[in-house]
Amino acid sequence: MSVTVLVLVGVLLLVVGGCVCVVWAARGSPRWVRVVSSLTLGVAEVVGTLARSSGKSRSGSDSSSDD
To answer: DSSP string covering the chain, please?
Structure first.
């Protein structure tokens, strides 16, 4: 198994774990779960902002965001 595959599996596990923490935090959870949930949502916001600023999410003739 290559190092790249191991890194991708690790990232996938972190993403899934973060999503689980977000759902668990919404239902009431220990403090550490709420912290992980906040970090997960913060990282998602940063990634979304970076994707929008680089123009990757603006493909085709989608001009509805210009209104």
So the answer is: --HHHHHHHHHHHHHHHHHHHHHHHHT---HHHHHHHHHHHHHHHHHHHHHHHHTTT--TT--GGG-
> Is the per-residue pLDDT at 18 higher than 60?
yes
Residue 5: is it exposed, middle or buried by C-beta count within 10 angstroms (0-12/13-18/19+)?
exposed
Distance CA(45)–CA(61), nearest Å, equals 24
Q: What is the pLDDT of residue 57?
A: 45
